[in-house]
Amino acid sequence: MIDHMEEYHRMDWWGIPFMGFWVIAVWLVFVIIAFLVYKDAERRGMNGPLWFILIVIPWVGIFFLIIYLIIREEKIPATQKSAETILDERYVKGEITKEEYQRMKKDLGGNKVE
């Protein structure tokens, strides 16, 4: 009986039983992945906090992570500018000359060159 009690009370790192350590480690991995998904979702204009909550739930989070990875490619942020738009803005601001503008526009494959 004493041996069983000693084994029961044996603690590993930080006073946490060995199995408890692994549960905490797995949960921390979920938290890190959820944070990365949160940042990615925010950058893509999606609901970051919602995806964080769905991913941080252990085991169910794996399912939602797979769903997120499938649907995230379909969302394109409206704030991304095309190379031609950036080039037009630089020309309007006077950052590049007309010749540079025409050359760069041609390099981009634009058919219309003023």
List keywords for this structure.
2 domains, 114 residues, 0% strand, mainly alpha, 68% helix, single chain
Q: What is the fold's blueprint, element by element?
A:
Elements: H1 2-9, H2 18-43, H3 48-56, H4 60-71, H5 83-93, H6 98-108
Structural class: mainly alpha
Describe the sheet with the most strands. Answer: none
Give the distance, in angstroms, between the N- and C-terminal Cα atoms.
92 Å
Helix content, binned percent: 55-70%
Structure annotation, total helices? 6
Number of strands: 0
Describe the overall structure.
This protein is mainly alpha-helical. The protein folds into 2 domains: about 1-75; about 80-114, no CATH class. Helix content is about 70%, strand content about 0%. The protein is built from 6 helices and no strands. The protein has helices at about 1-10, 20-45, 50-55, 60-70, 85-95, 100-110. It starts with a helix and ends in a 6-residue tail after the last helix.
What's the gist of this structure?
The protein has 114 residues and is an all-alpha fold. The protein has helices spanning 2-9, 18-43, 48-56, 60-71, 83-93, 98-108.
